Amino acid sequence: MNTTWQILTGNLAIVALVISVWAHIYFRFRQLSDLHTKLAFGAVMGAGTMASMMMSVPLTNGVFIDLRYSLVAISALFGGAPSAILTIPMAVAFRLYMGGAGAVDGVISIACAGAVSLTLRILQKRRKAKLSDIFILGATVSLTLLATMLILPNQVSAMTLQLVGIPAIVLNFGAIAVAGSLLLQFENMAQDRDLLTAALTQTPDFQYVKNRDSVFVVVNRNVAEHHHFSSPEAMIGTTDFHIATQRRAEVLFAEEQDLMRRGEAQINKIESLMQGEREHWFRTSKVPLRDRDGVIIGLAGVTRDITEERRIERELRDNRNMLSHAMSGMSDGFAMYDPQGKLVYANPQYSNLFPLSGVVRVAGYNIRDILRKAIETQERRNFPVAVDEQWIETAARDLHRDKDEEIDLYDGRWLSLRTRMTADGMALVVVSDVTAMKQAEHSLRAVADRMKSLAETDGLTGIVNRRAFDEALALALARSVRERTPLSLLMIDVDRFKAYNDTYGHLAGDECLKAVTDCLRKAARRDTDIVARFGGEEFVVLMPEADEADACRVAGQFRDALHALNLPHTGSEFTRVTASVGVAVKQSRGRATTPSEFMQHADEALYDAKRGGRDRVSIWEPASSTRAVNG
Predict the structure, then answer these.
(1) DSSP secondary-structure letter at 414?
(2) Which are the contacts of 321, defined by CB distance < 8 A and separation ≥ 6?
(3) How far apart are the C-alpha atoms of 426 and 422, rounded to whole Å?
(4) 76 vs 287: CA distance, rounded Å
(5) Which of 19, 77, 524, 625 is the most buried (most CB within 10 A)?
(6) Angle formed by the axes of helices 435-455 and 307-328, nearest 10°
(7) Contact predicate 337/426, CB 8 Å
(8) Looking at residue 203, what DSSP letter applies?
(9) What is the predicted pLDDT for the residue at 328?
(10) What integer pLDDT is reported at residue 488 of this predicted model?
(11) Whole-structure pTM over 0.85, yes or no?
(12) Is the confidence at residue 305, as pLDDT, over 80?
């Protein structure tokens, strides 16, 4: 009995060794499909059953006792049918190879253990195995082995249940419990590793780890692709000297070595780099990495491309500056303060714009008196309720510097204050009611956001589509009427485009339309200009606050850019790709019109340009219908 326990305990070590081997080679198979991984698992478990039978307890009449059943059961539970298809035949074949009177009974026992395990796997209904499943499997397989020992004649005649059966049943149960628990723990570790790997490789940022010598030891896929490596693994072992200029690599190396020497993190460093002809902005954070003894062994870095964020910030800043410049020519409220803060001149509009503190916004009062009155009446929404003289003194000194600011009044109005200093220390303040402008700005930004989501619907050119353009035209026309600002509209049609498609094919036609789009973008460069594809080979350009001269200049620049491309067009009388342009202009004080009328004017001008010989610009006029600008 002692010998039986010792041999079967050695078998248990074989089971543990097989599980350890699979743990070491598992991640090599993770790159393959799930089916191939399960087949590999079944093959390893099958090899384990063979090793177990080679270390079996031999009895009379060719009967062998070992722990092969535990590996068969584990293979079926964790790998399902694909694994069992390999493990069971391998175990059966080796048992038949060993021969003996108990060979057939051994094959039946293997088949029974496999069938029981597969049944439990099916009952799981695709859910992940749990610890309770492992113990249920161990108990079920043990009972199955006990039943085969009692039923199969060669098993009973070859041994006694008391001497050999109990060790075999107990240790098969133990082997299943140990192997299953180890595999379950290993699968949880593998899942955690997969989660960390996915977080590293799938994040939109550039993430990397460097050793003490600033050599890349870990990079995510974004870093590798950005630097034109085939995979993250291919980039391991390189440095910044492999991917950047000598000067930049030297700067980065010095900064990183200094960072690791000081042990201090670098947070949100912003820098710009030229990539081709475009400027890109990046935000980088780097932190030193320490081992368990606190010794710095490297650094981890995260870099984010913030080019789009910077572009949006710049656009918002430009919009604000544009509003400020528009206010500079308006003579609404005007005031002049001397270097001591005394109001020496103010027109009536200045005091009228501030109804609660207007009584002191007259010549002779000091800015400090005006501030006290404004605070007392809570005329401005952002004023504190209780302030001391120190706060008033600081605010008064702030008057004498060049600045632009907007204030929110108690009644919901917004005022724009432009302060400019003179050579003799006087402060000139121009105040304008910009409530309508603020509302328009919010509306335009909302429409711009909507257009941004709709612009991508034109998959060919990537510019604004017809639906977004119609909304922008209605809003821009309403704003032009309300604020009495000019508005220009260009309608463009590619000359003889059908002949171009017939001659060069539709794919070439698509490339031609893209080229026309690029020329329009280069010509209409203002942030407020909107370039849209109207349909087919027709395009439109909407230009808020642009008069006839501005529109003609953009049209001319567009034609010059298209001519410079010199795209061949044998089906055209000009032997190259050209376009005709119709221009409609609503003057700043022109009569109100509807979007459809405005579009009709531009269309009529375009028709006149076509009729006049093509490759020209025509301007719509009420009296003579249209006027040609060039031919």
Answers:
(1) E
(2) none
(3) 5
(4) 47
(5) 77
(6) 150
(7) yes
(8) S
(9) 41
(10) 94
(11) no
(12) yes
